[in-house]
Specification:
Elements lengths: L11 H14 L31 H17 L5 E5 L8 H22 L26 E5 L14 H10 L26 H20 L2
Parallel strand pairs: 1-2
Helix pairs in contact: 1-4, 2-3, 4-5
């Protein structure tokens, strides 16, 4: 829950990921879990007076650990976490998810396969099957929305994110606020935003995600 200037709603990051996932579900067989709205937003953009809600990364880690643990116990082995907030250079949201997923996974393997599971004879071919979908390292994957493709640069409530919201959640974009002088330098490019730009980016990202999921 982070401030996205006056033209985009609180929760924009989760909305983008959630609505994008719904688009993805139209084109392939996936089950969409409810979004996690709260996390390490940070006060880098604005403080609590602008209604940003920042969760300590350790608390977020605990939350995600519990979610991952429950999913593994339920038998889910193809879990993808899609992040649309602070996705560059492994910032707090992504690192907390990575840490929580691996911790939950190791604990699950110890509980289901026993202490020393990797050292047993049946794990002799472990490294030969690293790319296989049933390899434990592939059971939970943490990705930014862009799947770390460098050509997809981002912004914060600027041309790109505003265009995405225009395409995904048009009723939540306050178009009359775009371009108003409010001191938010990061929104200067929002005046260039269009639904068409958003749809073009969404289509390109959908193709990347479909290719990724087809490998699972």
């Amino acid at each position: 829950i982070e401030y996205h200037s006056s033209h985009l709603p609180m929760g924009t990051d989760a909305l983008v990921a959630y609505e994008f996932a719904k688009r993805l579900a139209r084109e392939t067989k996936v089950i969409i879990a409810p979004p996690v709205w709260y996390g390490p937003a940070s006060y880098a953009v604005q403080g609590p007076e602008k209604f940003t809600i920042d969760m300590d990364g350790r608390v977020f880690y605990d939350t995600m650990y519990q979610i991952f643990t429950a999913l593994l116990k339920a038998g889910w082995h193809h879990v993808y976490v899609m992040i649309a907030h602070q996705t560059e250079d492994f910032n707090p949201t992504e690192t907390a998810c990575l840490h929580a997923s691996r911790t939950a996974l190791f604990k699950h393997l110890e509980e289901t396969r026993g202490i020393g599971w990797w050292g047993k004879a049946e794990s002799k071919t472990f490294y030969e099957t690293l790319s296989a979908a049933d390899n434990p390292w592939n059971w939970i994957k943490i990705y930014p929305l862009t799947l770390r493709h460098k050509e997809f640069t981002g912004d914060h409530a600027g041309r790109i994110e505003t265009s995405m919201m225009m395409a995904l959640c048009p009723d939540l974009v306050r178009k009359e606020k775009i371009g108003q002088e409010n001191g938010d330098w990061f929104t200067e490019t929002a005046v260039e935003a269009t639904p068409e730009i958003g749809e073009e980016r969404i289509r390109a990202l959908l193709d990347l995600w479909l290719a990724e999921l087809n490998q699972a």
